[in-house]
Amino acid sequence: MTKQVEDCPIETTLKQISGKWKSVIIFRLLEHPQCRFNELQKLIPECSRRMLALQLKELEHDGLISKTFYPVVPPKTEYSLTERGKKLKPVIEGLQEWGRIN
Amino acid sequence: MTKQVEDCPIETTLKQISGKWKSVIIFRLLEHPQCRFNELQKLIPECSRRMLALQLKELEHDGLISKTFYPVVPPKTEYSLTERGKKLKPVIEGLQEWGRIN
DNA sequence: CAGTATCCCGGCAGATACTG
DNA sequence: CAGTATCTGCCGGGATACTG
């Protein structure tokens, strides 16, 4: 029943931030706490709209970011980190620090 | 010349530990400092021999693990974390902690 | 503006067989 | 034991067009 991978939750945890663009999105949202869809696009121009939408959806599903939708015309959305997402800050910074040092 | 992604090194850094099996391998090598190829296979049974070899090669290339080859018969190898790899310990633990809390 | 739908291709990764 | 070689199928992700 219990598989090895489940005993090693680091894998599951890492998946939540290691999608093709997730870390960058989180990183950007740490710098820019409130972002609209197109703002994120401009901040991460290499990421296609399709992928941005998909990754945002996963991040939202995993409770790392939250999305506020304003049903105005034209439509407006705002993405920001949840409390859970913000708690990643020291970890992300630790990673950066590690990357910088080597 | 300079692309956005290069200004955001977290992405590069994360890639070094977010291959399909890298985090698990690092994790296992933190628990078991010296591992032979087949030992790692047994510790991570869901990972094919092919993938294990590929991921190990990348980890070695990135300087996270080192490989010692003993030209005996039958051949014997030993994988372990480098100093650089060991420095990831607090980060990995931070990730685990974050994953545990939520 | 903020996405979704659809088509399509290259490359990731499994299975299997082989080697020093 | 510790890998590599090859073949193949699948799906991640780009490009483009469309929608509320």
UniProtKB/TrEMBL annotation, chains A, B:
Which UniProt keyword terms apply here?
DNA-binding, Transcription, Transcription regulation
Key word Transcription regulation present in the record? yes
Tell me the ranges covered by the HTH hxlR-type domain, including all copies.
Answer: 8-102
Instruction: State the superkingdom.
Output: Bacteria
UniProt-listed InterPro entries: HTH_HxlR, WH-like_DNA-bd_sf, WH_DNA-bd_sf
Return the protein name: Helix-turn-helix transcriptional regulator
